[in-house]
Amino acid sequence: MTDSKDVETVTLALRTLGNFDFTGHSLNEFVRECVVAYLEDDFVDVRKAAAETCCKLLAKQPVQIQGSSSSIQVVGEVLEKLLTVGIADPDPSIRQVVLSSLDEKFDRHLAQAENIRSLFTALNDEVFEIRELSIAVIGRLTSHNPAYVLPSLRKALIQLLTELEYSTVSRNKEESALLLGRLMSASKGLIKPYAEPILKGGFSSFPPPPPPLLLL
User: Fold this and answer.
1) Which partner for 83 in 6, 87, 118, 162 could form a disulfide, CB atoms 3.0-4.6 Å apart?
2) For residue 213, with 0-12 CB atoms within 10 Å meaning exposed, 13-18 middle and 19 or more buried, which class applies?
């Protein structure tokens, strides 16, 4: 897509675009039609700049609060592309950039079932920092779509507790403890029923999941 001679120029253009103040202008269509294409570029620097720019421009758009159905759909499509990059890009720094950019402004879209599935996939990333970012986002989404998040989240909790209880590798135990702490911090209200078995280090006494709610 990008010629090797143009990498620096394209990267600079993307980063400059992301830092511009476009107050009063909607760039959702532009991001989808022009910037998203660079998420699949052959060059790491270009993909990384494109990911950063997509997240910055979307975060500035008023559609996060209120907007037309078409604008909301565009944002959803771009976020879906970003999440694909966040779990599948071969460069871990790009996966980390995407997940670190998914703050509360995007929760309305991230709480959709297909996006939650992608985030749980990222929870198995080989890089601990990426797993930490994904579990923080997942924890936030428990209040937006508990019926879809909680069943998989309960499995993740059991896996972390099992690692804490039975792993003979100190680093694995440390990472599991950190992930549990991050999860408890991000979803304080809905994690409360599981606090006692977590503190005891056992999962056999986990309370049953809450009754299902309607999906968003």
Assistant:
1) 118
2) exposed
